Amino acid sequence: xxxxxxxxxxxxxxxxxxxxxxxxxxxxxxxxxxxxxxxxxxxxxxxxxxxxxxxxxxxxxxxxxxxxxxxxxxxxxxxxxxxxxxxxxxxxxxxxxxxxxxxxxxxxxxxxxxxxxxxxxxxxxxxxxxxxxxxxxxxxxxxxxxxxxxxxxxxxxxxxxxxxxxxxxxxxxxxxxxxxxxxxxxxxxxxxxxxxxxxxxxxxxxxxxxxxxxxxxxxxxxxxxxxxxxxxxxxxxxxxxxxxxxxxxxxxxxxxxxxxxxxxxxxxxxxxxxxxxxxxxxxxxxxxxxxxxxxxxxxxxxxxxxxxxxxxxxxxxxxxxxxxxxxxxxxxxxxxxxxxxxxxxxxxxxxxxxxxxxxxxxxxxxxxxxxxxxxxxxxxxxxxxxxxxxxxxxxxxxxxxxxxxxxxxxxxxxxxxxxxxxxxxxxxxx
Length: 430
Description:
Layout: H1 8-18, H2 20-59, E1 63-68, E2 74-75, E3 88-103, E4 106-115, H3 117-123, E5 128-131, E6 139-143, H4 144-150, E7 157-162, E8 165-175, H5 177-184, E9 189-192, H6 193-199, E10 205-206, E11 208-213, H7 219-229, E12 234-237, H8 242-281, H9 284-292, H10 297-337, H11 351-376, H12 379-385, H13 396-417
Parallel strand pairs: 4-9, 6-8
Antiparallel strand pairs: 1-11, 1-12, 2-10, 3-4, 3-7, 3-11, 5-8, 6-9, 7-8
Helix pairs in contact: 1-2, 2-8, 2-10, 2-11, 8-11, 9-12, 10-11
């Protein structure tokens, strides 16, 4: 047969040479789809890093709370051993008491927290900007903001009003407010826990026990293990306020980023599928002519599949590079928006090879149905139904309008990334 001397690869090269725009448009569609997925994926990873940094600031030191199930204070002797649970950094009993500080004629209502300040300072959980931790019954550590407001520094004295009367306390240290946040719950006065319990006639009682965790520890796992060890009168829970808000923020961010990534993948499927369908539909006449010359249905399917694999791989390689290039300014913009340090973008090693592989496979899968239809149609029917090839050249006005729209989109996206305009201004560009 005439087609037996025909090489499909020669036909493929000739069609690309005669109609380079069609092949480039198909490859460009794959590149846009893969680039969008890579940019979204890498930017989503950068967003997660930014959100984690933000939640670390909100959460401070990750921890769980042990408190009385019925509320109120409980005897610290009821607490079982928790320090040996994997991921536990420190077990910190806490005793809170509202108090009144007097400095000269100034009186300030404050909350005092009783804690083993010396141990916390030694483990790095309490950071002092000056001085040392309080260890004696007549010593205290003040938060930096409170000390500045009172005009006090290390070595000064304050009058501390307690249940057993007024106690004169010496300021031995000034605490960094960030290190107080995770355990003090708004308290600005730190006193040794035994001393504060004695001043309050509540020796041996605590309001709660805060269990500090290692940075990489699994809070749900520690929470579950601690809950199994506790008696019925005690309960383990995540601290209310900053910690729970931080976890809610991170969980909501993960859901939103997963949705955006999934939506981008679905859009990529649509773009590639539409490009492959148009690529085959426009060549119905030439494919039917090849069938008339003796090509089998299997050869037509193989021809279209090979072309889809080649164009898909080429487009995926280009798209992966473009996606990484686009991800860098997007990631930097996200870091600035979250007030997180702008660091070098770290790309997961599997993103690029997986994106190239998926781009190629999606192109092949998208070409399967058009290839099947092209192989099944009767050659003579395909010749009669297919429109005659158009020799009309592309209008320069149309090309100019398309380039102008692309330029407008690029400018709008650049202004959004530079934070010159709000994010909603990127909707027309999309």
